[in-house]
Amino acid sequence: MIETYSQSAVAEAKAYVENVYRSVVLRNPHESEFHQAAREIFDSLVPVFAKHPDYRQLGLLERLSEPERMVTFRVAWVDDSGRVQVNRGFRVQFNSAIGPYKGGLRFHPSVNASIVKFLGFEQVLKNSLTGQPIGGGKGGADFDPKGKSDMEIMRFCQSFMTELYRHIGADTDVPAGDIGVGSREIGYLYGQYKRIRGASEAGVLTGKNPLYGGSLARTEATGYGCVYFVQKMLQSADLDFRGSRVVVSGSGNVSIYAMEKAIQLGATVVACSDSAGYIHDPDGIDLETVKRIKEAGRGRIAEYAAEHPQAIYVEGCGGIWSLPCEIALPCATQNELNEQDAERLIANGVKAVGEGANMPSTLEAIDRFHAAGVLFGPAKAANAGGVAVSALEMAQNSARVSWTFEKVDGQLHRIMEKIYADCTEAAEEYGHPGNLVVGANISGFLKVAGAMIAQGVV
Ligand code: NDP
Q1: Alpha-carbon torsion 294, 296, 299, 303, what sign?
Q2: N or C: which end of the chain has fewer CB within 10 A?
Q3: Is 264 exposed, middle or buried (0-12, 13-18, 19+ CB in 10 A)?
Q4: Strands of 245-248's sheet in order across
Q5: In angstroms, what is the span from residue 40 Cα to ligand 1's centroid?
Q6: Is residue 371 packed enough to be buried (19+ CB in 10 Å), middle (13-18) or exposed (0-12)?
Q7: What pTM was computed for the model?
Q8: pLDDT tens digit string along 241-262?
Q9: Residues 53 and 99 in one domain
Q10: Distance from the alpha carbon of residue 325 to the mean position of ligand 1, in angstroms
Q11: Is the same domain home to 246 and 355?
Q12: Are 192 and 270 within one domain?
């Protein structure tokens, strides 16, 4: 049922939301990514505050947008030449209303307070959408793993954990991977945590190798989950992956497994990228080559063209969105798809966009997609499969059991379908049918709000 509210209720809700947004900007100066995430979330929540004026009295938006806690810390480590290097580490514990803080660690030179807070804020609502008992957090460091030796990565991870360990725990805060943090880094981080604590507490980190408590299908979960979500969007419009051309940005963890599932469903993936450029292979990307170059070899995507002469390598990333496709999956990083990119995709006939990365589309790009009637799956819904399976990893660690790949993948599939249904329903109920940005924000928010109200003013 579509609810409508009086004009005055909507005007009051808008004024409230605008006021809180202004105070977020004032209290977090120069944090443009955090402001951007807040803008998108806040705008979606106007109908909620129109329906529930009491939520304003409870200061729910003010509380939601102020992290419960944030730590920054020095990470000193020794490089291979014997020189001491210093980086800055971060952990934001954003909201614990529905469970222990949960969210990845990112190692990338661009990491700062704004990036960590935008990711943490998104994570709160994303984790709520999964239906699992997990709150939201995020962390990382401005450390660049590129070009570092294995031993340098290990020393960095050990130093990072030597501070982080005091802030985390299986029932308090459970980090995982993100950009620059994969199974190797999680292994070094876990080894150091175990050494300091003198105990095997597997549930303190997720994304572990299955050899010591990791869940099967966690590696695949974000990419597969994104494709399961987009599949539901496509079905709603009588479309399908089968026979479609797909463009995927990035060639990291999320991209590789989004490509894998799209190919399994009968699509042709015609392009993917890394931070230096993209490859266009109209015959369809050979995923085994990409895996060998990027997963096993930690090489550059440019190497693909040497092995596949029919493929073209183009320097620079943005041009990937000028390639004709029916489905676009931005899976690399924030703000990688802007308004002009959206216009080019629309002009070339794109039918659906699913965000595998966090906040890859600018607000203007999202507006363009909505205006053109393109099916749009926002990150906090479309890429929630990774953290959903992380929660399943925590459950397996608590019970000291290991589920089969099929069992985990089956649960992932059901969770993504449920997220799609919840977002669709919330969008409809609050007067924005088909707008999954609004639906995801409202559906995620309502559960967190309910838990916060039930726990009193904390
Ligand atoms: P990876 O480090 O495995 O891969 C990142 C990919 O993006 C690499 O191909 C990298 O290229 C490329 N990339 C990084 N920065 C840029 C840039 N500025 N411009 C263009 N390309 C870039 O990370 P993930 O796959 O884990 O994460 C990708 C995105 O998905 C992030 O937004 C992350 O927050 C999000 N995400 C990840 C989840 C997970 O489970 N891993 C869960 C939910 C969301 P290069 O190789 O050159 O560095």
Answers
A1: negative
A2: N
A3: exposed
A4: 312-315, 277-280, 268-273, 245-248, 327-329, 352-354, 375-377
A5: 21
A6: exposed
A7: 0.97
A8: 999 999 999 999 999 999 999 9
A9: no
A10: 21
A11: yes
A12: no
List, chain by chain if needed, residues with CB within 6 Å of any ligand 1 atom: 177-180, 222, 250-255, 274-276, 317, 331-333, 336, 356-358, 383, 386
**Which run of H or E residues covers position 16?**
helix 7-27
* pLDDT tens-digit readout, 50-71: 999 999 999 999 999 999 999 9
Helix (H, G, I), strand (E, B) or coil at 212: helix
Do residues 110 and 29 share a domain?
no
Which of 274, 300, 380, 415, when mutated, tests ligand 1's pocket best, judged by the most ligand atoms within 8 Å of its CB?
A: 274
DSSP state of 215: P
- How far, in Å, are 252, 256, 314, 372, 404 from residue 270 at the CA level? 16, 13, 13, 23, 32
Q: Is 1's pLDDT higher than 70?
A: no
> Total domain count for the chain?
3
Q: Using one digit for the tens of pLDDT, what is the confidence trace for 425-449?
A: 999 999 999 999 999 999 999 999 9
Residue 177 lies in a domain: yes
For the chain, percent of residues with pLDDT exceeding 70: 99
| pLDDT in the model for residue 120 | 98
228 and 298 housed in the same domain: yes
Residue for token digits 């409202």? 442
Q: What six digits make up the tokens of 245? A: 């051309």
In a domain, 373, yes or no: yes
Pairing of strands 245-248, 268-273: parallel
List, in order, residues 6 or more apart from 236 with CB less than 8 Å away: 375, 424
Same structural domain for residues 199 and 248? no
- How far is ligand 1, taken at its centre, from the CA of residue 358, in Å? 9
Which range marks the domain in which residue 86 is found?
A: 69-206
- Cα–Cα distance for residue pair 47/119, rounded to 1 Å: 24
Residues 49 and 148 in one domain: no
Cβ 339 vs Cβ 257: under 8 Å: no
d(CA 269, CA 281): 8
